[in-house]
Specification:
It is a single chain. By secondary structure, this protein is mostly beta strands. It contains 1 helix and 7 strands. The chain has one helix at about 5-20, and strands spanning about 30-35, 40-45, 55-60, 60-70, 85-95, 105-110, 110-120.
Length: about 140
């Protein structure tokens, strides 16, 4: 059997057992990309229940918070290895002014939170028609 040793992880595990505190959560991994007329942001949140996820937008700041709680165990169970981070995860993203933050859609499936953020109508490319020139020679009277 192959065993990986990490002395700092062992110290964290011992401190957790002694103090009863959770381990420090790691970063919330994410992907962000544009798909036609929307931006898609996907966060990996395995093991986090849907009701433990909070999404807020204030002005152009998107904040995602999630909490992974320790599993319920019988009192006589002794943890041998604990590598899955527990606690509160948080990630903030500054959204461009060209995104429609009023119409963000959120879905959560198989441990992945997916946000679909539409591009605002005013930011989409559009054609400008050229007039007949009736205003080109108008003089302003004072």
């Amino acid at each position: 059997m192959l065993m990986r040793t990490d002395p700092f992880r062992e110290l964290d595990r011992l401190a957790q057992q002694i103090t009863g505190t959770w381990s420090k959560p790691s970063a919330m991994p994410m992907d962000a990309y544009r798909d036609h007329d929307e931006y898609i942001v996907a966060f990996d949140l395995p093991g986090v229940p849907r009701d433990a996820i909070d999404i807020d937008v204030e002005r152009n700041m998107l904040t995602v918070r999630a909490e992974r709680r320790p599993p319920q165990k019988a009192e006589d169970v002794q943890m041998e290895l604990s590598e899955r981070p527990l606690g509160i995860f948080s990630r903030q993203i500054v959204l461009a002014d060209t995104l429609d933050t009023e119409n963000i859609q959120a879905d959560y499936e198989t441990g992945v939170l997916t946000l679909r953020i539409p591009i605002a109508q005013r930011a989409k490319p559009h054609k400008i028609s050229i007039g007949s020139g009736q205003y080109a020679h108008t003089q302003i009277e004072s």
